[in-house]
Amino acid sequence: KLFFTDYGNAAKVERCDMDGMNRTWIVDSKIEQPTALALDLINKYVYWLDIYLESVEVVDYQGRKRQTITKGRQIRHLCGLAVFENYLYTINSDNLSILRINRYNGTDVQALARLDNAKEIRVYQKRTQAAARSHACEADPFGMPGGCSHICLLSSSYKARTCRCRTGFILGSDGRSCK
Known about the structure:
Elements lengths: L1 E5 L5 E5 L7 E4 L6 E7 L4 E6 L4 E6 L6 E5 L6 E7 L2 E6 L4 E6 L6 E6 L36 E4 L6 E4 L15
Antiparallel strand pairs: 1-2, 2-3, 4-5, 5-6, 6-7, 8-9, 9-10, 10-11, 12-13
């Protein structure tokens, strides 16, 4: 799945399949300007930062179990969001410090370090990487991803795929080759 925020005409948090199909709103109320998103891949939770409502909130992948983690004026200056173990990590754009926030109670906020210039944060650790499994976009015997001549996108599951073409090409009737 692909998760993303939108604060155009109607602010929301959405998800869809990697090929763009099955687009679903998972949060569309009491939300104004969601600017950062982080996923807990193990427990299947979506965290987001709303700088207009000055809050960090969480829901499960279906948009249920919504909770506010923390709220207040300090949220207005945050950018980027990452989750690892018991904490959320973000950047305070005012003083360029990395903040660690307890994701269960939101009260334990700690400044960890200062940076020269940052707008995004990511946690790279072996435990945060999902185990690789075989999937529909693996290269076929001819080296074509999922048998697609240009682009292979996972669809509704790791066993399903959709072929797409680069700009200027159209997908052939076989659903794999581009012309």
